[in-house]
Structures are given as C-alpha cells and as structure tokens.
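Late entry, written up from scratch paper. The run itself happened at the end of the previous shift, but nothing got recorded in the book at the time, so transcribing now.
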Amino acid sequence: MRRRFFAVRAVLGLALIAAAVAAAAFFADHPGQVGIVWLGRQADTSVAVLAGAVAALLAIIVLLALVIATLRRLPRNLRWRRAARRRRVGEAALTRGI
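Output as recorded:
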C-alpha cells in the first residue's frame, strides 16, 4: 500500500514539474506585456515575470499555511509524545519488576 501511494505521489510530482516546464516554454515562446495601475502607480512587466511572481506568492502562502498548521498541532503532538514516553517507562518498570 505504501509503495503504491509513493508511486502516485511521484507521478503527480512529475506531472506538476512537466506542467511548470510547459508553462515556462509557452511564456518564452509568447512574450507579452502586462501593465497594472494600482493606487495611482503603474507597473509594467512581462507576462513571464508576473506568472513567476504569482507562483512565488502562492508558494509563500502554502508555506505559511504549513507552518501555521504545524504550530497548531504542536501541543497535541507534545502531549502524545509525553504520554508515549510515560507508557514506555511504565512498561519498562513492569518488565523489570516481573
């Protein structure tokens, strides 16, 4: 079961890499300009730079979500580890006592 899950994840990862390469090739073959006016300021850039900025922003958001989820699970994980340690120590004491 684990190998199958790993294979599916590997195929999905390769598909994501292939999609990123295809998008990069598309933007390289079809250059364009993007102009954004926001709060009275204008920013002119290429479509590839804008796509890269959006991808970087999404990566940062995902990483922040992972950090927040990890911090939310931290107290529960610490309690579980402490309980597991107490259980191991208790079982070792019982084993020594028998």
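The beta strands are 33-38, 41-46.
(Scratch paper discarded after transcription.)
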